[in-house]
Amino acid sequence: MKRSVLIIDDEKDQAEGLNKALSKLLTNTSFEYAYEEKGILSSIENHYFSVAVVDLRMDKFSFDVIQLIGKIFKINPFAKVIIVSAFTGEYFSQIKDLLLTGKVIDVIDKIEFDKFVPLLENSISKYHDELFDDPSEINTALLEFYSQAKNEKEAFKKGEKFEHFVSLLFQSIGFNNVNKRVKDKSLNEVDLIIRNEIDDGFLNKFGKYILIECKNKPEDKVDKNTFIVFSSKLKHTNGLAELGIIATTGYITRNTYLEAIRDSSEVRKIIFLSNPEFEKLILAKNKLDEFKLIIDNQVKDN
Predict the structure, then answer these.
(1) What are the two backbone dihedrals, phi and then psi, of residue 85, each rounded to the nearest 5 degrees?
(2) What angle do the packed helices 275-283 and 155-173 form, to 10 degrees?
(3) Mean pLDDT across the stretch 195-214?
(4) HEC states along 58-107?
(5) Could you tell me how many helices (H) and strands (E) the chain has, helices first?
């Protein structure tokens, strides 16, 4: 998992200035910023961040900031928010309910830039130090989302919740960009596409992207045909993705494993994540190392 901050402001110069200043001060933290409505919503929905720095007064958009922060909490249970504003007093009655959630870690008044930035730096650094000393909060959130996905009865919501859980899991491993329900002429439709940007020699050999097929049917098994269809999607990425993952709350049939063995001579590899693997990843202190171990074991087995 990474120390990662998303800066949200409707003023481009302010967003860029904070990004530049904080990046120099916190070299162990990755930063990105968004200042346009489309970019803000895309970053919240598809990118991982552990802290969002949100300007309280943004008048250019179709949503209000209170709604936006609520959306952050709903989509990303790992994220905490730092609210910044030159008008905090005016908005206190509106933000008091947000403060009660425990997910707003600081409210900082905008003062002179050279005094304001160190306050942000301290707040971000303090939270990250506490988070990485005790990862139990992240693991608890993952377990809760996994349970919700498995127990959901309505078919569409069931699939949606499982995809969201898998997305959160891979964000907790350290992948910043996880895009959902990607449709492409060559890829057909893929549930999740991960941009493989982790600086790791083992993972880098699997191409620029990782494809994930999600199957949330605890009572069903993943069969040989599911494997063949997904393998075809992987082949049609023209080498951009050489690692595919079939994630399921159900089970893998013996014929599917045999098909994976027959397919193992290919450069591309497909691995399976089912209940045992999910449990290991959720509870692992170092989720990246556990993920690599799962890949290594399954590739050797195949």
Answers:
(1) -170, 150
(2) 40
(3) 91
(4) CCCCCCCHHHHHHHHHHHCCCCEEEEEECCHHHHHHHHHHHHHCCCEEEE
(5) 12, 12
Separation between Cα atoms, residue 15 and residue 109, nearest integer Å? 16
- 141-166 burial code (b ≥16 CB/10 A, e <16): bbeebbeebbebeeeeebbbbbbbbb
| Cβ 110 vs Cβ 116: under 8 Å | yes
| SS3 at position 199 | coil
Q: 168: how many CB neighbours lie within 10 A of its CB?
A: 21
CA distance 187 to 169: 23
Residue type for position 231: S
Task: Say how many Å lie between the first and final Cα of the chain, rounded.
Answer: 28
219-270 confidence digits (pLDDT tens): 778 888 889 889 888 888 887 888 999 999 988 888 887 887 776 656 788 9
Q: What is the mean pLDDT of the chain?
A: 86
Q: From CA 125, how far away is CA 132, in angstroms rounded?
A: 11
224 vs 205: CA distance, rounded Å: 26
Summarize the confidence of residues 72-85 as an average pLDDT.
Answer: 86
* pLDDT score for 187: 47
Residue 295: what residue type? I
Mean pLDDT, to the nearest integer, of 269-281?
92
**Whole-Å CA distances, 21 to 56, 66, 81, 189:** 20, 26, 19, 40
pLDDT, residue 1, reads 60
- Mind listing the domains of the chain with CATH numbers? 4-134 (3.40.50.2300), 137-301 (3.40.1350.10)
Task: Give the integer Cα–Cα distance in Å for 63 and 125.
Answer: 29
Mean pLDDT of 52-68: 86
Decide: 237 and 186 in contact? Cβ < 8 Å.
Answer: yes
